[in-house]
Amino acid sequence: MSTSFTMIGGEGPNSYREHSKYQGALLEAAKQMINETISTKLDINFTSNLVNIADFGCSSGPNTFAAVQMIIDAVEHKYRQDIEFQVFFNDSPNNDFNTLFKTLPPARKYLATGVPGSFFGRVLPRSSFHVGICSYSLHFVSKIPKEIKDRDSPVWNKDIQCTGYSKEVAKLYFDQYKIDLGSFLSARAQELVPGGLMLLLGSCLPNGVKMSETVPGMMVDIIGSSLNEIAKQNTLS
């Protein structure tokens, strides 16, 4: 059974919409690479003037609209013909699709469709989308390995910090991620049209660099230490 992880919806001060500028900046940094990839790699055999775009893990903030517009601009620049666009916005069924559709750009050049469902499995028909994107969503696993949550297990992950986990814990997560990534790619391979593109954006670490040595890792360590101290004071459990 997969576990559903969703961002905080709505438009309030704690929403993903208000706390996704970092992801938006990284998307903007990849714009030139996206344009070049579409220009040189996309090979659509037009049987109609319809191009389907899919965002897997769209959430409810403005970044998905920016990603879609980048793709549309690049496709129009490449083919320079009258094209009609349809966009599939995919995320977990618990995603805030209400906010997503309420905040769609008024002057958009596409028809919008919501596709609830885990992207670790099939969510679209075979050969149905021409360009897909998954931007800073594929670092999640579909579920936490059960051994890690079992307090009686020798690999129970009792720490929150990046520096606190054992090699055995890391291997369990790594094995789960390999399964999930394989499932994701297998599903997209069936849904992508011949000559289409699947764009994957995400943060990576060079070989030999530990997460605990990065700024995000250090932040997680600090938060983890703080939560452990609060738990020791019986403020939370």
From TrEMBL:
Signal peptide bounds: none
A biological process from GO: methylation
GO molecular function per UniProt: metal ion binding; methyltransferase activity
Gene3D superfamilies referenced in this protein's UniProt entry, alphabetically: Methyltransferase, alpha-helical capping domain, Vaccinia Virus protein VP39
Entry keyword set: Magnesium, Metal-binding, Methyltransferase, S-adenosyl-L-methionine, Transferase
Pfam families in UniProt: Methyltransf_7
Protein name as annotated: Uncharacterized protein
Organism: Arabis alpina
